[in-house]
Design brief:
This protein has 36 residues and is mainly α. It contains 1 helix and no strands. Keywords: Membrane, Transmembrane, Transmembrane helix.
C-alpha cells in the first residue's frame, strides 16, 4: 500500500508542477502577444 501512496503523491506533485509551468507559459505568451 505504501508503494501506491508514494506513487499518487509523486503523481500529484508532478501534475501540480506541470500545471504551474503551463500557467506561467500562458501568462508569458499572453503578455508577449499584448506587447505586440
Amino acid at each position: 500500500m505504501s508503494k501506491w501512496g508514494d506513487f499518487w503523491r509523486t503523481m500529484s506533485t508532478e501534475l501540480f508542477l506541470l500545471a504551474y509551468v503551463i500557467a506561467w507559459v500562458t501568462v508569458l505568451l499572453m503578455t508577449h502577444m499584448w506587447a505586440q
